[in-house]
Amino acid sequence: MKKLVFATNNPHKLEEVRAILQQKFEVAGLADIGCHKEIPETGTTLEENASIKSHYVVNQYQTDCFADDTGLEVDALDGKPGVYSARYAGENASYEQNVDKLLQQMEGIDKRKARFRTVVSLVMEGKEYLFEGAIEGKIIHERKGSGGFGYDPVFVPDGYTQTFAEMNANMKNSISHRAKAIQKLADFLLHNG
Ligand code: IMP
Question: Which of 39, 38, 31, 3 shows the shortest CA–CA distance to 18?
């Protein structure tokens, strides 16, 4: 089976991506290649951050690799937290603190439309390819469910009544932003890998 490095140390993401690519590719995380560094996300767009992470690994470890960056874009907050989703409530903020801040910022706001957007950067044989996936939905007023991670407990995708945190992993993985971007990556690799 073809091996791929995914530039992440986030166990939730690794699990999700392994579940999506399981039949076709063996996915190693950063820890599996001995990289325990938190690669700084200094870009101002999801594209830039995904690209910074994939190139870092390619340059340091001389291996083809893909990386992702995801943001939650809330219309009523002019697209925030967006590329700063991981540090919305400050550097090293927990998922809990970020969700608290989001709910607080949206108090009294009726317009609750939002989307998760993921950009994947693949660097293969020195060339970079970008893939994008997004899912539209809304931010509810209080947390529901205990699965998933990040903003999952307050995000209900359009056409569903459950939050991502209430869905089982298979369901989230069949419709999520990351699943869509990773599926595009998988299709590309099957034809070009
Ligand atoms: P990252 O930079 O791609 O790790 O994502 C930034 C932040 O977005 C994370 O810290 C999470 O808070 C949030 N996030 C990313 N993916 C998801 C998801 O699938 N569900 C909920 N939140 C997510």
Answer: 3
List 69, 100, 110, 187, catalytic entry:
69
The string of pLDDT tens digits covering residues 24-51 is 788 999 999 999 988 989 999 999 999 9
63's tokens: 């291996």
Q: What φ, ψ does residue 37 adopt, rounded to 5°? A: -80, 145
Please work out, in degrees rounded to the nearest 5, the angle formed at the alpha carbon of residue 14 by the alpha carbons of 67 and 139: 85
pLDDT tens-place string over residues 132-156:
999 999 999 999 999 999 999 999 9
Q: Note if 78 is an active site residue.
A: no
pTM of the model: 0.93
Name the residue among 92, 96, 85 with its Cα closest to residue 46.
85
Task: Return the residue whose CA atom lies nearest to atom 11 of ligand 1.
Answer: 150
User: What is the chain's percent helix, strand, coil content, to nearest 5?
Assistant: 40, 25, 35
Has residue 158 got a pLDDT over 90?
A: yes
The CA radius of gyration of the chain, in Å to the nearest whole number, is: 16
Q: What is the pLDDT of residue 190?
A: 79
Task: Give me ligand 1 centre to Cα 6, in Å.
Answer: 15
